[in-house]
């Protein structure tokens, strides 16, 4: 066919050229040899395009993939891990000493604000209540004494000094009552429900109980190293990313972060950067930045390790595996499958080059079928045809 050049790889030449000497004349190849020769031949349609027959064995060594355009990252994937969003997390402890007598919630339970998590028996609270009752009784007695003294003083039945003493006693009783009530309030800053010396530990927010160190009959006190309960909203998490210091100038508040997790290999999640670290780790030379992640399905969990890509604010590219790139001098090329068995070489411009994936700008469009396996084979055959020209 005019305008088409046949290219045959060396392995095909060894099997397709069957020669026999008969009377000093070369015997033409058999029909089977001609068919085998055609099967492994590539047709060069143009200087940058190869076409194979559907039975060509090379096709088994070539794979192509449709790759959409996506935001271009600032660099390689970074190590990151997920933690509680402290803006929607409550770590619940006690401000009194006592003993747990009943547990009302377990890890995984969904709780409402004001719901009882545990009940605690506290002698401190019992003592505080007794002090309040005593102070109130004394206050009531001294109020009546003062009122009677005022009436007698108005009729000049007693001296003014006695009225003043009764008034001072009444004011002192008021102060003692206020002190006793304040002590009970200080013992209960979280607004726990109190009945006698038993108090109910309440959840301050709607959420899920994710941790519980409280156990039956556990002796509790202020200043315990771990909270008795952790209640959080699992639909919001913080992403902590360790960023090399050389990247810090490129990262901005509000930038998007693409997240991958081994737990969900076929899914991608996104977060927004909300805080930049203010100190460099002296050992790793990295800065920790924080991003907020919406987790509506609750798939991702606190303390998961993930991979993060900080994306540029604008511009998209095609993420090409480095194995799909063919480098020739300072130029890079990829092969695009334009039709079944037909492959076109494209010169491309790299936007970023990563350790396993590079982002391509000019030369490719999102959604094209890019050869991800066998690019070197195609390049070798294309160059072989050029050497035969």
Summarize this, please?
By secondary structure, the chain is an alpha+beta fold.
Please explain how this structure is put together.
Among the domains are: 1-57 and 374-389, no CATH class; 123-196, Helix Hairpins (Orthogonal Bundle). A hairpin with a 2-residue loop joins β2 (21-22) and β3. It has 389 residues and is of the alpha+beta class. The chain has helices at 10-16, 31-39, 123-154, 160-187, 375-388; strands at residues 5-8, 21-22, 25-26, 41-46, 49-52, 63-66, 69-73, 78-84, 89-92, 98-103, 110-111, 116-121, 193-195, 198-202, 207-212, 219-220, 229-232, 236-244, 256-261, 264-275, 286-294, 305-321, 326-328, 331-339, 342-348, 350-353, 357-360, 369-373. Mean pLDDT is 84; it is low at 1-25 and 34-39.
């Amino acid at each position: 066919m005019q305008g088409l050049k046949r290219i045959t790889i060396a392995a095909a030449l060894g099997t397709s050229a069957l020669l026999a000497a008969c009377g000093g004349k070369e015997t033409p190849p058999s029909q089977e040899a001609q068919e085998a020769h055609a099967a492994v031949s590539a047709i060069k349609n143009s200087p940058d395009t190869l076409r194979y027959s559907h039975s060509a064995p090379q096709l088994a060594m070539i794979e192509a993939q449709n790759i959409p355009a996506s935001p271009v990252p600032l660099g390689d994937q970074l190590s990151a891990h997920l933690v509680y969003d402290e803006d929607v997390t409550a770590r619940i402890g006690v401000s009194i000493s006592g003993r747990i007598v009943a547990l009302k919630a377990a890890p995984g339970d969904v709780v409402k604000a004001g719901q009882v998590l545990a009940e605690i028996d506290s002698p401190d609270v019992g003592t505080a209540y007794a002090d309040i009752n005593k102070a109130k009784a004394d206050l009531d007695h001294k109020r009546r004494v003062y009122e009677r003294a005022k009436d007698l003083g108005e009729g000049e039945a007693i001296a003014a000094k006695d009225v003043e003493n009764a008034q001072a006693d009444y004011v002192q009783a008021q102060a003692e009552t206020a002190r006793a009530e304040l002590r009970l309030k200080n013992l209960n800053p979280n607004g726990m429900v109190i009945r006698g010396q038993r108090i109910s530990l309440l959840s301050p927010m709607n959420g899920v109980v994710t941790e519980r160190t409280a156990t039956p009959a556990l002796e509790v006190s202020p200043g315990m190293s771990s909270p008795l309960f952790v209640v959080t909203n699992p639909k919001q998490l913080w992403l902590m990313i360790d960023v090399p210091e050389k990247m810090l100038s490129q990262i901005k508040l509000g930038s998007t972060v693409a997240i991958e997790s081994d737990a969900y290999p076929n899914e991608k999640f996104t977060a927004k950067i909300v805080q930049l670290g203010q100190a460099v780790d002296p050992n790793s030379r990295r800065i920790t930045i924080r991003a907020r992640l919406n987790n509506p399905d609750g798939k991702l969990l606190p303390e998961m390790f993930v991979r993060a890509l900080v994306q540029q604010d604008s511009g998209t590219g095609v993420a090409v595996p480095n194995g799909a790139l063919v480098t020739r001098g300072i130029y890079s090329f990829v092969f695009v499958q334009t039709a079944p068995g037909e492959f076109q070489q494209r010169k491309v411009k790299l936007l970023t080059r990563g350790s396993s994936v590079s982002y391509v700008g000019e030369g490719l469009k999102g959604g094209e079928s890019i050869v991800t396996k066998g690019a070197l084979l195609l390049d070798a055959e294309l160059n072989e045809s050029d050497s035969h020209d």
